[in-house]
Amino acid sequence: MEAFATLLDRLVLAPQRNAKLRLMVDYFRATPDPDRGYALAALTGELDIPSVKPAMLRALTTERVDEVLFAYSYDYVGDLAETISLIWPAKPGANRARGLAEVVERLQAASRSEGPKLVEGWLDALDTTGRWALIKLVAGGLRIGVSARLAKTAFAQAF
Fold first, then answer.
1. What angle do CA 132, 15, 80 make, to 5 degrees?
2. To the nearest 10°, the Cα dihedral for 6, 12, 14, 15?
3. Which of 67, 78, 92, 142 pairs with 150 at a CA distance of 20 to 30 A?
4. Which of 77, 78, 79, 93 lies closest to 127 in space, CA to CA?
5. How far apart are CA 68 and CA 111, in angstroms?
6. CA angle 3, 132, 38 (to 5 degrees)
7. Are 142 and 9 in contact (CB under 8 A)?
8. Cα dist from 106 to 45, 100, 138, whole Å
């Protein structure tokens, strides 16, 4: 999950198409299967995790953070994933960080009642960038400046 979080973070900060392409090519070459496949699915918008929805993420956050603080923060930041990742009161050492494939497979097999518990534990274990990437992954709609075509092109160039 850490390598995927780093990729997303760098993609957001890279405005040039060729820089984004190089980042993805390097990631695909260095990442083993099945993480590579799940990353491609997430980047192309083809990954669906039905056990986690944005409303559930809001509810999880308001259990830990004052609702008014969350509302003000979300209004100021404007992005749900970024807001939650920044204000989440983590419990370091609560869990170990998971790999991308493990996160996706466990969430796809989870029920709607199990999904929030899994996400909460992972949010506790991750740093700010990891939390942001996890939320982007599970909520869908990455909005990081990468089209499905560009991601597929990077995958093709990697091999």
1. 25
2. 170
3. 78
4. 93
5. 29
6. 45
7. no
8. 19, 10, 12
Cβ neighbour number for residue 9 with a 10 Å cutoff: 16
> How many Å apart are CA 52 and CA 110, to the nearest integer?
9
pLDDT in tens, 58-116: 999 999 999 999 999 999 999 999 999 999 997 766 667 689 999 999 999 999 899 99
Contact of 117 with 90, CB cutoff 8 Å:
no
* HEC sequence for the chain: CHHHHHHHHHHHHCCCHHHHHHHHHHHHHHCCCCHHHHHHHHHHCCCCCCCCCHHHHHHHHHHHCCHHHHHHHHHHHCCHHHHHHHHCCCCCCCCCCCCHHHHHHHHHHCCCCHHHHHHHHHHHHCCHHHHHHHHHHHHCCCCCCCCHHHHHHHHHHHC
